[in-house]
Amino acid sequence: MRKLLVLALVGLAAQLVDGALGMAYGLTSSTLLLLVGVAPAAASASVHLAEIGTTLAAGVSHWRFGNVDWRVVGRIALPGAVGAFAGATFLSSISTESAAPWMAGILFTLGAYLLVRFSRPLRTDRRGGRLRSRFLGPLGLVAGFVDATGGGGWGPVATPALLVSGRMEPRKVIGSVDTSEFVVAGAASLGFLIGLGSEGFLLPMVAALLVGGLIAAPIAAWLVRIVPAQLLGAAIGGVIVLTNARTLMRSADLGGPARPAVYVLLAVAWAAALALAVRALLRTRRQRAVAAAALAPGTPTDAPVPAADLPAVSGAAGPLPRSPEPVITPQPATAGAPDHR
Fold first, then answer.
1. Half-sphere exposure of residue 313, counting CA atoms within 13 Å on the CB side?
2. Model confidence, pTM
């Protein structure tokens, strides 16, 4: 019972992270299950079965808050389901000894990616046009396969790619990715059911993760508007890297003084990423404050705003204005000319 309560808390925390970042529910939950000795295929199967419920709740919550672009959901979810089914079938067919380093390697790589991704601002200047199927289809296929074989990865692959495209608001990227994951989780669960049978699902763990995730889903959909995702992403990335490094070093028979040295290096890298994330967050907030002051009524208009103080739009530093406007320095109206300001 104590272990199930801990898993429920993990499911709650993982869903809060996932709802705020658009990623990391599967990474966090799978990492914990691997840490306590669950077989890789069973861990991924159980997490994806729990995600059917948590992603449904998250999708409904994001829809109610207006965070979903249904056109994008439709074009990325189906290829994602195909990739997830293929990944689940692949992971079910290999031995536990082979799957453990494979899955730990994917989780470690994704965790390191989170550290790099959230240690710096990601420019998401809005550009015209819509996302096309020739971009969304392959993206969903790759993200779905990585998600099923790694026990997580749909969000870390899909969310940054959509943010970089610059054609969606960050909150709609997160909401659309979370909503489409319902289809991906269902396809992965079907693949694991065919490959492992019903005994491949650890139902008590599934129930615990599901309960925690369902409680957190509506809270996370609200937090996506206010949470400083920059710090959250860097923090969870470090946890995933350190945890999965243990499995990789064990698979490589790395022992003696080398193992503590690796942990120290990873901890230093994590601390550096957190420091960079804090600096990026403070810089972005300062730039937004300067831009807001420049646009405020009564602001002196005799000097332009320095280019260095213009805001760098970042999807990793919290909520963004829906339609960022350029900072314009009004010019004094000439005598007899109408004032167009």
1. 18
2. 0.64
